Amino acid sequence: MKASSMSPGRGIMKAFHKTFASDSITPFQTRLCLARFSTSSSWRARSEKASSKSRPGKSKEKLIERDFFLSVLSASATKRDAKTYLSRFKPPTTPQPTVLPDSEKAISKIVGKDNYDAWRLNKTGVNLGSLYTPAKAIEESPVFAQQPVPQHLVSESGDPLHVALIKIRAPQSLNDDTLSGIGITLSQLVRLGLNSVVVVDCEDEDMSNGPDRTVQSWRETAAIQAERVAAAIERHNNAGARYIDTAIGISPCLHEVQSTVHVRGGVKVQFPTLLLKPLSKGAIPVIPPIAYTTETQKIVRVKPDDVVLALTREFSGITARTVKGTEPGKMVQSIVDDVKSRMVQTSLDRVIVLDPLGGIPAADRPDGAHVFINLEQEYEDIKKQLRVEKLKESDRKIHWALDRHSKNLELLQRALALLPPTSSAFLTTPEEAAVSAKATASKRVDLPGVSTRRQRNPLIHNLLTDKPVVSSSLPTARLNAGTSTTPRTTPSTFVKRGMPVSIIPNPRRTPWVHPRPGQKQITLKDPNIDFPRLLHLIEDSFNRPLNVEHYLARIENRIAGIIVAGEYEGGAILTWELPPTIPVPSQGTQEARTRMVPYLDKFAVLKRSQGAGGVADIVFKAMVRTCFPDGVCWRSRKDNPVNKWYFERAVGTWKLPGTNWTMFWTTKDVVRDGQMFNDYFAVCRDVQPSWANNKAVVD
């Protein structure tokens, strides 16, 4: 008799293809989705079994399942993105505890005691021997208990619990449908390996923050809204949500180990177990901005941003530890015991702010928000810009909104300063976070023949790619066009600690203009340039050795400037090129100098940084918006795989006849200006390569 059931993997695959038979899904996208879904199916089954709430009907369950698949597939993750995600966010597993035999427990106890005695002897110089060791008769005395004594369990799982810290501002302004959509998104993040902790922020422009608003009234408002959020998540997350209002404490910072991290107001996580237990089971804690004083257990109101920072410190392991005792040995031991009591290892990967105001405003973007912020490079400039905009406005509401934007930016900057560089932050509207991936009628009328589109959820896309929904280096004109390759932008801002950007010379002090007669041009031997590292960057990126002597001779007195990202992780060398069509006697004239072509001679990113961290976007954006805002041109081999990336960022392209080159430019109206086009063409055709090897690459 044949078995009526099929293997889980085959069943999922069959259901997947049946569900999406009419959709255009690539095999790679299928593998990405199933790699995550199939490996976590057993974990979800356990969560569903443990859940006590009623389950939706089968038809609704299928729609939820389809929505989950579409959310993953619509993220447009590349092969490199998927590989990075799958390696970092491994499927959640339930660790199998190991029972230590009595002999091993005894050995462990002896070894631990010997280590402690050695440390004590080294620190104090006094060997106390077994003075504080329990007597053998006491140690071996029988234990009388009503229940079996629990075994000593040791977890074998070394994988950290990946966490996203999410702040929802002004939930009282959101309707139930929006909160339900957010609940769906957060449940999908859990299924993709990212557990969430939600902080509720009820502050808005109309809600008074003064003393006339009592703590009791504030507590009632915060509790009602936090419970609304928890109920919305509960309906969609298998493991549910937990409303927790007793985990946060506040103290005057006495009797605590001093930390290099500023602990503003003494807000801290007083009882981390209340958060870690539900988190480890897939539940989502929802926390109101309420704290208890550590001295008197009095309820006080705290700033939601301070709660977010306290949680950031807790999940990153940077916390002020309470010290017990006055003797050095006891103080150290109390800290060690406190650390050991935190058995769940966490990795805070995302800090997310859902604010009705949306992303950080930017006047040059089509949706009015920064797409990507490299804090190391842009934080101070954006803060200054917000202050300037505030001075220009007299409207009270605009003043309040700009203050809120500034606080959001400060919160993300302070949080990411506590986290490793791989962590990131995301700022978007609750409506965008609630977007479903289901195909819906498109409201756009500028796309002929297109009636439906998949709405891309920015949080799902960001988790799978660690990138913004659209690239920050795309030209704004292309974003406004709404082409199929560049989806309509959303009011979201992706934030990373990022890397500093060095531009030599500084365009703010020395604009990059055509060189004047007798003007000294910079060279690659400039003391501000680390030439060996720059050379390594070029050769590593192009995978070819450079003929240094030939190259330096070719660009002598032509260098417009150098862009370096981070520790030479990416960079660009830009030059002023004289069109070869200008006769030699006329090359020193003013007319010839004005015809010099701004040329991107080298654009390089280290192999280990390619496709990660936005290094290429950072360098390219600095080039086209700071160094050469009026336009620049460059060339690339016709078979270069990077050309797709170039095509998206260029205003125009041209395949040079009789060569293996494609010319790109960001200058406007090049084709209409016949002389400019011919100058660009001549420069890109005649620049001589400077590679040391004779590799079989047709230039």
Describe this structure in words.
- The protein has 699 residues and is an alpha/beta fold.
- Among the domains are: 161-207 and 214-253 and 264-324 and 343-431, Acetylglutamate kinase-like (Carbamate kinase); 501-686, Aminopeptidase.
- The chain has 23 helices and 23 strands.
- An 8-stranded mixed beta sheet has the order 5-8-4-3-11-13-16-12, with helices on both faces.
- A hairpin with a 5-residue loop joins strand 9 (290-293) and strand 10 (299-301).
- Helix 8 crosses helix 9.
- The termini are far apart.
- Keywords: Acyltransferase, Amino-acid biosynthesis, Mitochondrion, Transferase, Transit peptide.
Which helices and strands occur, and which strands form pairs?
Elements: H1 8-19, H2 27-39, H3 41-50, H4 58-73, H5 79-88, E1 98-99, H6 102-124, H7 136-139, E2 153-154, E3 161-169, H8 176-191, E4 195-201, H9 215-234, E5 241-243, E6 248-250, E7 267-269, H10 273-280, E8 284-287, E9 290-293, E10 299-301, H11 304-316, H12 328-340, E11 346-354, E12 372-374, H13 375-392, H14 396-417, E13 424-428, H15 430-433, E14 439-441, E15 452-454, H16 458-465, H17 476-481, E16 493-496, E17 501-504, H18 531-542, H19 548-555, E18 559-565, E19 570-577, H20 590-594, E20 597-605, H21 615-627, E21 633-637, H22 643-649, E22 652-655, E23 661-665, H23 674-686
Parallel strand pairs: 3-4, 3-11, 4-8, 5-8, 6-9, 11-13, 12-16
Antiparallel strand pairs: 1-2, 6-7, 9-10, 13-16, 14-15, 17-18, 18-19, 19-20, 21-23, 22-23
Helix pairs in contact: 1-2, 8-9, 13-14
Function: N-acetylglutamate synthase involved in arginine biosynthesis.
Region (Disordered): 40-59
Enzyme class: transferase
